[in-house]
Each structure stands twice: as structure tokens, then as C-alpha cells.
Design brief:
The complex is a heterodimer of chains A (about 300) and B (about 425). Chain A is mainly alpha-helical and about 300 residues long. Helices cover about 70% and strands about 5% of the residues of chain A. Chain A has a two-stranded antiparallel sheet. In chain A, strands 3-4 form a two-stranded antiparallel ribbon. In chain A, β3 and β4 (about 265) form a beta hairpin. In chain A, α1 packs across α13 and α12 (about 250-260) runs antiparallel to α13 (about 270-295). The longest helix of chain A has about 35 residues, at about 60-95. The two termini of chain A are about 45 Å apart. By secondary structure, chain B is of the alpha/beta class. Chain B has 18 helices and ten strands. In chain B, α2 (about 35-50) links the parallel β1 (about 25-30) and β2 (about 55-60). The chains are: A mainly alpha (about 300), B alpha/beta (about 425). The interface of A and B includes residues 130, 151, 155, 156 and 262 of A.
């Protein structure tokens, strides 16, 4: 028996990607997790084990902020799941209708906000919704609905929902594009076979197309989950690091930023910041695992 | 032949350039005053460079809210500038303790400053001073003098007169009585609570008693300012909850609001923007004849990055910043930032003179939350932002706010336990 030949070309081709990914992703990730196990006492770094996590979850001052941020994060995610993804699917279904005119124009127009910077989106919407200079109050005034206007970004009860909807506006193009691509890949024979069996119009969508694009919807859900629990930019741009009013828009990302880098007179604490980052990582990991093992493996796939 | 002379000329040029590079030292200043970029580039730096050939200075500011975080990261990474603009108290103290700032006690220019001026950049025991004091800012109210004349309002001196004036403006309806929003939160604490507060807690007396643990944030002196702030809500513009700091500035300078709760740092910007006459009044006292207290807050210092490549040049620059000459250029180039140097500076701007004149009439103090009390978690300064906003919006009662702040402070600060 001959010794199996080492296939060097595999290693050579994998090396660049592995090295780069390790240097910029894997190493920082584990180093952050390691940092969470330390604390600074009198200018020296001391190993404290899980003490930082104990503070984060059980100290009343820290845990109140943590659960508030986590709760806000879930609300942020929920709005995306309930508004962004259904609208994205509906838009994709409409766009894939063969007799729709100017479909390419609509598709581009809806997708464009996705490629804009968060800074532009946050700033533009802040101006649109500004009670002083914004066009939202004057537009509502023009149709006699001025009484419906409120300084949404400044009210505790509306601010987070408003920001979530701004984010939905920005990113609705992504589920739309993914579902659109999935819908286009459904072969005409299947739809025609359905038509022969009498399934047409809306019921063709519910009974034939939707089950076929379900795996794509699953992917979109998990992308939304990861994106939302890593979110930071929009809140920071629109409301600042204190995520006002009264922390009502504080999510894990802004909480982590404030703790890690400090804010105004509050000094940065990289170790507590890393503990929060570690908690975020764990939450996302659990979420993704639930999806991968609990949902994706049970999802029925159809051979097209 | 021609080719050779060309080569020679090129070589000579190269030599000259190399020579110039070897002589010139470049100092980079880290700062959060991005509003002052033009003044530094056009007035302050040329004045310094004219006297000190061979030292080039670059002013490199970042946004105020990002400055501390950005500076800390740069210092840790070793990429920060040679000269560091110092926030007062703990932010800079932490930098000094971490070895990022140099002890400047032995610098002769330090004798130009009083102990109070230096206190914001000293260790708790006063043994080391690590930043040269540059300027303080004074709180008060700036008003639209044309609007006041039009409505026949006298400048208010007491709180009753202040609210009467606001009522008059509100009834007339052509101006928003007061331009302030709560979206960015800090104005409510800085231009609200710490502006009017010293009249309630008797300035330094109350501030020191709080640090010593003799007074509590639940005491009337510390809760009553929230009660007054709660009355402000009625006089702020429509939708003030989402009004940002630049919104407020624009509302006032466009002449749409009559009174602006201010810090003196606004003066330069307002002079450039507003085309109406402006005046300033100090925080109104509670009863006629009371001693007045003002917040004369040591706000900016300047120090040296311990890791700088050119400590000598940096010290030369800092010594110049400590000189009366700099104080005069700075005080007049940036009306509203009042030099802390012992030598009095003759200011030319009328609004700045009005502000600085209060130093003679009232007792000075600094912002209550800045020294020592914002060292722990929860951070008292940040909590005060939230509390001041809640008071103005009326989402919490003043007594609840005092209770919450006291609990937060007592959770980590031993003298309050």
C-alpha cells in the first residue's frame, strides 16, 4: 500500500483566505472573549474569571441596562420580521408578475436605499421627521392630518419603533431581491401543472410558490436576526451613544460601545465591554444554532 | 553639459528639501473643538509659528462626543498627536495615571495660573499638574435684544421675573420663548441643571459638601432645580423632544426664539450667524437680593503626550500656551472661552465682556458632577443628562429623580453611603 499523497494544492489555495480570516476575524473574536475574563485594578490587568459576567447579569445597575438593551433588540428584530420580511416577499411576488411594466425600475428604486450609508439614512430621516424643519409635519398638515404628527424620535414610546421602521425602509430591498431570485427559479412546468389542476392566481402563490421559496425565507430570517443583534450604526447616528430618550433606543450594540469606549465623563472599560460583546456573541450563536438544528433540518425541500 | 547641470540642480533641490525636513518639527494637536478649526489655523498657529521657526503645528480635531473614545484608542495604539487637549478632571486624570500625559509641574508657565484654575488637571492630592489650563466657559442665558425691546421686556434678575418674561413672550406668540431641545440630552443638564443649579446649592459650598458626603442629591438644594426645569417644558418650541442641539442654535440665530439657555462658547458662532442685537443675563436668583452664583467651568486644558517624539518642541508650545500673549490671542479669537491666566485679558467682544463681568458680581463654581463624582458606575454626569431631560418632559417627578441619582451615587461612592 502506498502512503497517501499530500495534496499540497488544497493547502496552498486555502491558505490565503484562512490566514486573512484568522487574522481579522477569528483571532479578534477569541481575544475579545479572553479580554472579558479580565479586569483592570490599579493600572494592571487581573484575571477575574466570570466576574464580569456576574456583574453584567446580576448587579442591579448593569443588569437593568443589559435586559433593557436585550428587550429593545428583540423588539427591533420583531419589527423587522413582521414588517420588513412580509413586505419584501409581497414586493417580490408583485415584481415577478410577468405582466408588470417597469419592473426593473421599481426593483432598482426599492433596492437603492440598501446601498446607502447608515449615516446618510439616519441623517436624512432625522431631517424628514424633524418637528422644526422636517417635511413630515408639513406633508401631514397639507392633508389635514397634522394632529397625527409627534416628535417621534424624541418620545420614549415611539423612538425605537420609528428607528426600526427606518431600518426596514432601508433594507426591505434585501429580502425582496432574494425572494425574487427564488421565485424566478421556479420552473414554469410546475406552475403549468398546477394550473391544469386548477390552482391559479393567489392560490398558486400560497400553495405552489411559497412552499418552494420557504428555504430562502429561512435564510432571510437568520440574516435579519444576525444583522439586528449586531445593529449599532443607525441608533448611534440618529440618537447618539446614550441612545435616548432615556435609553429607550438602547440596543446591545450601543450599550457595548458606550461601555467599551466610554462616553463623555464615563471612562471606557474594555473588560466589561468585552463581556457584553461576549454575551452578544452567545445570543447570536444560540439563535443561529436553533435555526440550523431546529428548523433548517426539518424544513421540507423540493427538488425542482 | 546641460544634462549634467540639470542633475546638479535636482540634487541641490533635494538637499535643500532634506535640510528643511531635518529642521522642522511637526506637532499635532488632538482636540474636540472642531468648531475652532479656522481660528487655530488662521490666528493661533501662525502667531506661534512666527515666533518659533522650525516648529510646525497641525490642529487635528474630532467631533466632541467622539473625542474621548477616539483619543483613548489612539493613545493606546500609539498613534495620537504630540499635544493633547485635556478634558477637565477624571478623563484627563485617567490618562495621566495610565502614563499618557506628562507631569508639567516644573514648567515655569504654570505659575501664571491660580490653584483653582489648575485644580481641574491635578491629581487628587495636588502633587502633579498635567495640563496647562487654557480656558473656562461661563453659563447664562443669551437673549434676542430686539425681541425684548419689541415686547417691552426688561432683562430678568429674579426667577419670578424670568418666568414672567417667558409668559409675555408666549402670549405674544411671535417668538418661541426659549430655544432648547431634549433630543441630545446634554443641553438639559449642562445649560439647564448646571446653569441654574448653583443658585440653589450655593455654588462651591454645596458642591464641596456633596463631594464630602455632607449633602445628598435628595436634599432640597439639589432637587429644587429639577422643579424649576419642569416648568421650562411649557416654554420650549413645538416638538422639543426631538429638537437637536444644532436645531436650537439655528432657531435662535434665525430670530425665531427669544431666549437661549447658553454657555459662553456659543458667542463666536452666534456673532457670525445672528443679524439682531444680542445680550446676556446671568441665571436669575430665586429672590431679589440673593447672592448670585455662576458656573464658571474650567473646560479646556492642554497637555503633552508622554510618547511624543519631540518633547522639547512640545514643551515650547505648551509654555507659549501658558503665556499672557496666548491668553490675549485666544480670549479675543474665541470670545466665550475665557483665559484662566492670572493676568487679566482685555476682551473686545461686548457679549463676552458681559459674561466675564459676572465674575466680579457673583460667586464662581464649576459643574457639580465633574470632580470625583463621575468616577464610578453609574456615571453621575450621564445620569444627570437623563434626569434633566425627564424633569423637563415631566416623565418623572423631581423627588423621584433625586432619589434615583442618590441611589446611583451611593452605590459606589463611599462618602455618600
Amino acid at each position: 500500500m502506498s502512503v497517501p499523497r499530500i495534496r499540497w494544492h488544497i493547502i496552498v489555495f486555502l491558505a490565503p483566505a484562512t490566514l486573512v480570516y484568522t487574522a481579522v476575524m477569528v483571532f479578534p473574536l477569541f481575544n475579545t472573549l479572553r479580554l472579558a475574563l479580565y479586569s483592570e485594578v490599579e493600572q494592571a490587568r487581573v484575571f477575574v474569571g466570570l466576574e464580569n459576567f456576574r456583574t453584567l447579569f446580576f448587579d442591579p445597575i448593569w443588569s437593568e441596562q443589559f435586559w433593557n438593551a436585550l428587550g429593545n433588540n428583540f423588539w427591533f428584530f420583531l419589527i423587522h420580521m413582521l414588517v420588513q420580511n412580509p413586505i419584501g416577499i409581497a414586493l417580490a411576488a408583485i415584481l415577478s408578475h410577468p405582466r408588470l411594466r417597469f419592473a426593473a425600475l421599481y426593483r432598482s428604486a426599492i433596492f437603492i436605499p440598501t446601498i446607502l450609508s447608515f449615516v446618510i439614512v439616519g441623517f436624512a430621516w432625522k431631517l424628514i421627521l424633524s418637528p422644526i424643519w422636517g417635511i413630515a409635519p408639513s406633508m401631514l398638515d397639507a392633508v389635514g392630518l397634522k394632529f397625527l404628527f409627534a416628535p417621534w424620535l424624541g418620545k420614549e414610546e415611539y423612538a425605537l419603533t420609528t428607528l426600526a421602521l427606518i431600518s426596514v425602509w432601508q433594507f426591505v430591498g434585501i429580502p425582496m431581491m432574494l425572494i425574487y431570485a427564488a421565485l424566478l427559479s421556479i420552473p414554469d412546468e410546475i406552475l403549468e401543472a398546477g394550473e391544469i389542476d386548477g390552482i391559479t392566481g393567489m392560490s398558486a402563490f400560497w400553495k405552489v410558490k411559497l412552499p418552494l421559496v420557504l428555504p430562502s425565507i429561512g435564510i432571510i430570517s437568520i440574516l435579519t436576526f444576525v444583522g439586528n443583534f449586531n445593529a449599532f450604526d443607525l441608533i448611534y447616528v440618529a440618537q447618539g451613544a446614550l441612545a435616548g430618550p432615556d435609553f429607550s433606543t438602547d440596543i446591545l450594540g450601543t450599550f457595548m460601545y458606550r461601555t467599551f469606549f466610554g462616553f463623555q465623563l464615563q471612562l471606557g472599560d474594555p473588560h466589561m465591554g468585552s463581556a457584553i460583546a461576549g454575551a452578544m456573541f452567545a445570543i447570536i450563536l444560540v439563535g443561529v444554532c436553533i435555526y440550523l438544528f431546529g428548523i433548517q433540518t426539518r424544513m421540507r425541500r423540493y427538488q425542482l | 553639459m546641460t544634462r549634467n547641470s540639470l542633475k546638479l540642480a535636482l540634487a541641490a533641490m533635494g538637499l535643500v528639501a532634506a535640510g528643511a525636513q531635518a529642521q522642522d518639527v511637526t506637532l499635532t494637536i488632538e482636540s474636540w473643538r472642531n468648531d475652532d478649526l479656522a481660528l487655530w489655523q488662521q490666528e493661533i498657529i501662525p502667531a506661534f509659528e512666527a515666533e518659533h521657526s522650525g516648529i510646525k503645528v497641525i490642529f487635528s480635531p474630532s467631533a466632541p462626543t467622539e473625542y474621548n473614545a477616539a483619543l483613548n484608542s489612539k493613545l493606546d495604539a500609539g498613534s495620537a498627536g504630540d499635544i493633547i487637549t485635556c478634558r477637565p478632571f477624571d478623563a484627563s486624570l485617567a490618562l495621566f495615571e495610565a502614563g499618557h500625559l506628562t507631569d508639567l509641574d516644573d514648567m515655569e508657565a504654570m505659575n501664571n495660573f491660580s490653584d483653582v484654575a489648575k485644580s481641574a488637571w491635578q491629581t487628587d492630592d495636588g502633587s502633579a499638574t498635567f495640563c496647562v489650563p487654557m480656558a473656562s466657559v461661563i453659563h447664562g442665558f443669551i437673549y434676542n435684544a430686539d425681541a425684548f425691546a419689541e415686547l417691552g421686556i426688561e432683562v430678568p434678575a429674579t426667577e419670578a421675573e424670568f418666568f414672567a418674561a417667558l409668559d409675555t413672550i408666549k402670549e405674544d406668540g411671535s417668538y418661541i420663548p426659549m430655544a432648547m431641545g431634549t433630543n441630545d440630552q446634554w443641553e438639559a443638564a449642562t445649560m439647564g441643571y448646571n446653569n441654574i443649579g448653583p443658585n440653589y446649592w450655593s455654588g462651591e459650598e454645596g458642591r464641596r459638601a456633596l463631594i464630602a458626603g455632607e449633602q445628598k442629591l435628595t436634599d432640597d438644594a439639589w432637587v429644587a432645580p429639577y422643579e424649576t426645569l419642569a416648568r421650562w417644558g411649557d416654554y420650549l418650541g413645538d416638538g422639543f423632544e426631538a429638537q437637536t442641539y444644532p436645531d436650537s442654535q439655528n432657531l435662535f440665530t434665525l430670530g425665531r426664539a427669544a431666549i437661549y439657555p447658553a454657555g459662553s462658547w456659543e458667542i463666536a458662532g452666534f456673532n457670525a450667524q445672528a443679524d439682531f442685537a444680542m445680550g446676556a443675563f446671568k441665571p436669575p436668583v430665586r429672590n431679589a437680593g440673593d447672592t448670585c452664583y455662576i458656573s464658571d467651568h474650567t473646560d479646556i486644558g492642554i497637555g503633552m503626550n508622554a510618547a511624543t517624539a519631540d518633547p522639547e518642541a512640545a514643551k515650547t508650545f505648551l509654555a507659549w500656551v501658558g503665556s499672557p500673549e496666548f491668553a490675549s490671542i485666544f480670549g479675543n479669537a474665541l470670545p466665550g472661552f475665557f483665559p484662566l491666566s492670572k493676568t487679566p485679558v482685555e476682551l473686545t467682544d461686548p457679549l463676552a465682556r458681559e459674561f466675564v463681568s459676572w465674575r466680579g458680581e457673583c460667586e464662581s463654581t464649576i459643574r457639580s458632577t465633574y470632580q470625583i463624582l463621575s468616577r464610578g458606575t453609574p456615571n453621575l454626569e450621564n445620569e444627570t443628562w437623563g434626569a434633566s431631560v425627564a424633569a423637563i418632559k415631566g416623565t418623572s417627578s423631581p423627588a423621584e429623580l433625586g432619589q434615583k441619582l442618590q441611589e446611583g451615587l451611593a452605590s459606589w461612592y463611599a462618602p455618600q453611603q
